[in-house]
Amino acid sequence: MTPSKPPKVETGGKACGATGASRMTSKLQDTLIENSLGKIRHKLIIMSGKGGVGKSSISANIAVALAQRHLRVGLMDVDLHGPSLARMMGLEGLLEITNDRFAIPMPYNENLGVVSMQSLMSEPDQAVIWRGPAKTGVIRQFIADVRWGELDFLIIDAPPGTGDEPLSVAQTVPDAKALIVTTPQDVALSDVRKSIGFCRIVHMDMIGLIENMGPFDCPCCGKSIEIFKQGGGEKTARQMGIPFLGTIPFDPRVVNASDSGSPAFGESASASFTEAITRCVDGIMDQLS
Ligand code: ADP
Prior knowledge:
- Helix content is 38%, strand content 22%.
- It contains 9 helices and 14 strands.
- The protein has helices at residues 20-38, 55-68, 85-88, 132-144, 164-172, 186-201, 232-240, 252-259, 271-288, and strands at residues 8-10, 40-48, 73-77, 96-97, 103-104, 106-109, 112-116, 128-130, 151-157, 177-182, 206-214, 216-217, 224-225, 244-249.
- The longest helix has 19 residues, at 20-38.
- It is globular, with a radius of gyration of 19 Å.
- Adenosine-5'-diphosphate is lined by residues 48, 51-57, 84, 212-213, 248, 250-251, 254-255, 258.
């Protein structure tokens, strides 16, 4: 058997005992982060209790829907173990780096730019084992060292759960607000309560909960099909005292759209998917106004 290539391990350097030079670097980075965030009106972190509920798909589709309203949008993928946004958006190749060493978000269209770990790796399929401090370092760099420019929205796609990445976002982007995605299924809902609890512990405002993969009408007989049941998201939002922004139906065309590198909103999706995303975006705007 040929030995496989060892995974790359990112440790993030020493966990303690910062030198004078590294303290100075981190002060400079604080300033860069402050400058970058100062130009961004709304920062949304998209969270979920568990994987596979469609969090990245919702992040991508909401970003496209906002950009279609002529808002300037940045989409930042902080799912460092399983970055998928660049692929979902059909963006290939590496990020462009300026002479003064800033990264330029990859343009999806004139209003929407994307930064994902995928666009920094020359071998995108190689596993990188991330230790906690390294993750925080990358998330800080994604803000400090990227030319986001003036934005109306920065959408931050976090990995599922309540680990290092959402915590680093909460610490680095103090005015970020959380948008939580779940399916209506009981197991997803019990995890989503943990995400809500996390936001309360770190004092992060929640703009609401979106239920994804809700019932859809069968294209053959028109009967409503509930793959993951229905209504659980709304019930959980009510019980936990956070706004419910709506249900996005399951739409088989969304699966093809992700694989072919184009978010489904306004393009290949069913009218009911597009209408549901539009309603959720209206709800987000209402919550923020
Ligand atoms: P997560 O980010 O929560 O892990 P993804 O966004 O990667 O989830 O979605 C998981 C899978 O579900 C993908 O194949 C995606 O295309 C599909 N998907 C997401 N939302 C929907 C939907 N509303 N209808 C049908 N498929 C969906």
